[in-house]
């Protein structure tokens, strides 16, 4: 299988639904040296407010993303929750300033709260992706189009 190096945007999208082990299985090269910079993070969802907090690697500076409510009028509301996970980014942490985001909760598997994903982007690139550490279930397979 050929090894393919992923652009940072594609790597972040892949990590939102897959693990690094799956990336290797599929022949994708996601730079593991940068993964030690993917910090633990906490997400808190309360009503129409989404808050993600983490500490910037190598500087111990605390960073907080706070949404501007209401975050959406046409999607289902995420139940109030506080969860831990990781904030994935390639290169530098997200810059201070405005950011757009998409939050999605996947259904639980065998109990639990389900996977929670938040993708952050600016007008020209994906900047980071948060994923909870628990309830991250999925399955891989193969098939064919006829």
TrEMBL record:
It comes from Piloderma croceum (strain F 1598). This is Uncharacterized protein.
